[in-house]
């Protein structure tokens, strides 16, 4: 069964394949910029009022920055824990897998050398001897080609 795609679905799949940002991402960025502009406008308007309003806005921003610092600190703790988990994974699970793969490669190398020396070389020598005997018999006229 073949599925028929509409032109919008084809355009969407082409956009995703080319790596261009999606419409939702662009809309989110524009919304973030507009919200930031609104906050800055409100701050400037508040600073143009009296000193009491300016002090209140300053206190709100100080509280906001303290809250942001707490969130960033928590994120850093989570990051360090995840990094420790990754290091543990690499040391205790990935390294033994790599060591086992390396050992397997060395075993295969030894096996191929053994087969080459003890099986392939004698067979090749036997075939060359048989070919030389066959050619000698052909030259003597005892065997036809």
Descriptive account of the structure:
By secondary structure, this protein is mostly helical. It has a domain at 70-145. The protein is built from three helices and no strands. The longest helix has 90 residues, at 51-140. The two termini are 58 Å apart.
Order of secondary-structure elements = HHH
Alpha carbon gyration radius: 38 Å
**Percentage beta strand:** under 5%
Note the overall shape.
Answer: elongated
Which structural class should the secondary elements be placed in? mainly alpha
Average pLDDT figure: 83
How many helices? The count is 3
User: What is the helix fraction of residues, given as a range?
Assistant: over 70%
The unreliable regions are none
Q: For the record, give the distance between the C-alpha atoms at the N and C termini, rounded to a whole number.
A: 58 Å
The count of β-strands is 0
Q: Sheet with the most strands?
A: none
């Amino acid at each position: 069964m073949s599925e028929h795609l509409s032109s919008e679905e084809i355009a969407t799949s082409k956009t995703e394949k080319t790596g261009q940002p999606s419409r939702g991402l662009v809309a989110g960025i524009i919304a973030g910029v507009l919200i930031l502009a609104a906050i800055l406008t409100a701050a400037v308007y508040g600073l143009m009022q009296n000193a009491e309003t300016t002090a209140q806005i300053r206190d709100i921003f100080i509280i906001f920055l303290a809250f942001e610092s707490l969130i960033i600190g928590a994120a850093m703790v989570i990051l360090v824990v995840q990094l420790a988990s990754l290091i543990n994974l690499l040391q205790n699970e990935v390294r033994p897998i790599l060591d086992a793969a390396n050992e397997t490669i060395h075993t295969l190398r030894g096996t191929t050398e053994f087969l080459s020396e003890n099986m392939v070389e004698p067979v090749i020598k036997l075939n060359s001897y048989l070919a030389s005997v066959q050619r000698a018999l052909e030259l003597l006229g005892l065997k036809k080609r």
